[in-house]
């Protein structure tokens, strides 16, 4: 069977497209990846095809449609290259986020004293405001600026430091990358088998692919001893937990540049991950607003 069969099928059925200024852009055309480069990078990272075929074939024995392991290796290899070796940067923790953090703190706790550090021409000074009336005026002003600063546009537009771009595999939150890998493999399996829902054995195969490429519990010593290897039940549990965390917005979102207001004409040649602190602060902020609105409705 053709080893590029699954890559071609993926590109025929699962491309992520966007219409921007009446032009169509494609973000995940993995057929453009250089085969030699993908194989060389995998070899440098210690990802081996024989381990992949061995581990996946052990877990795929209950389906009517056969799998082409050479083609599945190529699909996994290209998706890994696309997801883990793509340039990525975090959004900056900006003005809107600082305001949200301050707004949430004041709304929850109020203010009875304000202290800040002033710096000018190398001279530092701590300034403390204790006057109750002045503190109240400042807090009121901050709260009243809400509708000016927190708008649909300001929540979508982010800054980033272009000097901090690196390979996505080197970012702090690899759980997000695992989810992206799992999501792409899940979409492929659903299409390929023409089904609406994955069976548990399929989930286990997908998790095995992801774990092999991440070299977790599948190094050479463990291959022959079964020591520390995840059981099928554990792999199924990990799959379900990751998908559940994603639905509950517990994972850092990976976005294309046009999704976060950074696009002028062409999509940026990298993707953006939300700053973890931004996610935490905004989550607390929206949770507080939700509770406030519920209480107001009573």
Shape: elongated
Major sheet characteristics: 4 strands, mixed
Strand order of the largest sheet: 6-3-8-7
Task: Quote the beta fraction.
Answer: 5-15%
Number of helices: 13
Series of secondary-structure elements, N-terminal to C-terminal: HEEHHHEHEEHHHEHHHHEEH
The poorly predicted ranges are 218-228, 260-265
Give the overall pLDDT as a whole number: 83
Which structural class is indicated by helix and strand composition? Answer: alpha+beta
Distance between the termini: 64 Å
Q: In percent, how helical is the residue content?
A: 40-55%
Radius of gyration: 24 Å
Tell me the number of strands: 8
Q: Oligomeric status of the shown chains?
A: single chain
In short:
The chain has 298 residues and is an alpha+beta fold. The protein has helices spanning 5-13, 35-44, 49-59, 69-84, 95-109, 132-144, 146-149, 152-156, 174-193, 200-213, 220-225, 232-247, 276-297; strands at 17-20, 23-26, 87-90, 114-120, 123-129, 166-167, 254-256, 271-273. The protein is elongated.
């Amino acid at each position: 069977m053709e080893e590029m069969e699954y890559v071609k099928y993926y590109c025929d059925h699962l491309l992520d497209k966007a219409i921007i200024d009446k032009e169509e852009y494609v973000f995940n055309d993995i057929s453009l990846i250089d085969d030699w480069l993908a194989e060389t990078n995998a070899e440098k990272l210690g990802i081996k095809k024989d381990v992949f075929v061995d581990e996946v074939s052990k877990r795929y024995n209950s389906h009517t449609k056969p799998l082409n392991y050479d083609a599945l290796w190529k699909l996994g290899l290209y998706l890994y290259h696309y997801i883990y070796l793509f340039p990525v940067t975090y959004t900056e923790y900006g003005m809107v986020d600082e305001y949200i953090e301050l707004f949430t703190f004041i709304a929850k706790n109020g203010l009875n004293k304000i202290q800040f550090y002033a710096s000018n021409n190398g001279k530092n000074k701590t300034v403390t405001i204790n006057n109750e009336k002045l503190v109240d005026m400042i807090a009121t002003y901050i709260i009243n600026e809400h509708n000016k600063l927190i708008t649909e546009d300001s929540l979508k537009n982010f800054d980033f430091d272009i000097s901090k771009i690196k390979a996505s595999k080197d970012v702090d939150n690899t759980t997000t990358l695992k989810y992206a890998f799992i999501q792409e493999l899940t979409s492929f399996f659903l299409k390929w088998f023409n089904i609406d829902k994955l069976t548990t054995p399929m989930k286990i195969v997908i998790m095995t692919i992801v774990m092999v490429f991440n070299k977790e519990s599948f190094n050479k010593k463990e291959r022959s001893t079964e020591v520390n290897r995840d059981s099928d039940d554990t792999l199924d549990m990990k799959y379900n937990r990751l998908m559940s965390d994603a639905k509950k917005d517990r994972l850092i979102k990976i976005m294309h540049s046009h999704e976060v207001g950074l696009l002028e004409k062409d999509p940026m040649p990298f993707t953006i991950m939300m700053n973890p602190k931004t996610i935490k602060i905004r989550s607390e902020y929206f949770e507080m607003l939700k509770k406030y609105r519920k209480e107001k409705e009573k």
